[in-house]
């Protein structure tokens, strides 16, 4: 039986850098859906927010000490997961050639001591899960005062450690929250993908949805564009189910037929290959793992006609982003 686990971290109230508005809701929403809608055991989900209850008698609010402690010794239910999801919504920073996640008490003046390094995070995750999916929404402002956008080392280490990685933006873009959604645009697109595909979710269908939907959401809510950056492990099977499924074949592959209408009334599309964007400083996705998007997903919740976007292989379009460290996008 496949064992699924999730670590979700969301930080709103930073002590020394710009606070965020909806990062906690992003993390809470993911755990809530996995537990209540898909039946993932609650003990298999570690939620780290300011208001989160203790995890096995250890505090779960996302300070540097607590996050370091949790990552160094995960609860028994998360050990040796077949699929381990890790979601982080907060601030990230690139400093002296390395990427870091900022805990709630993290400070730019205290780097690298008061931050979680990319190497620490990815090494810990790899030790716990056979297949790891790391979802990062950390590009809140360009460089967060350090001059270099975060993300390049995460990409490099993910390739070296054979970890599946999805970042909320590409290169110089920024990630945005919206007050009317009560969450970030990346978390909104992720939540829609989960609600639509549910137990039929694979790396391929998740990637296709995010590539199509995230730019649409930015266009609809008046924010600069966000294009997710993703790369998949060499050992990853793009058609393997990555969430608990009630009905699946013995080999864990996606059934050939899917429902015509999803939970939110979304039109179903057959699985088409998609081409994922990669930056010039990002390791190329192995050719066998590259797929190309052709279909457009049109949720009924917003009457948005998807743009006819052409994605060029091996390139990431330049982003003319109006830099902002505030939680909501410019009006």
* Integer-rounded radius of gyration: 18 Å
Query: Looking at the structure, what is the overall shape?
Result: globular
Order of helices and strands: EHEHEEEEHEHEEEHHE
The top level CATH class name: Alpha Beta
Roughly what fraction of the amino acids lie in strands? 15-25%
Mean pLDDT over the full residue set: 77
3D architecture notes:
The protein has 6 helices and 11 strands. The protein has helices spanning 23-37, 64-72, 118-128, 152-161, 185-197, 203-221; strands at 4-10, 45-48, 81-89, 92-95, 98-101, 116-117, 129-137, 164-167, 177-178, 183-184, 229-231. It is α/β, with parallel strands linked by helices and 331 residues long. The longest helix is centred in the middle third of the chain and has 19 residues, at 203-221. It has one domain: 3-Layer(aba) Sandwich (Rossmann fold), CATH 3.40.50.1460. It is globular and about 45 Å long. The strands form 3 sheets. Strands 2-1-3-7-8-11 form a 6-stranded mixed beta sheet, with helices on both faces. Strands 4-5-6 form a 3-stranded antiparallel beta sheet. Helix 5 crosses helix 6. 49% of the residues are buried.
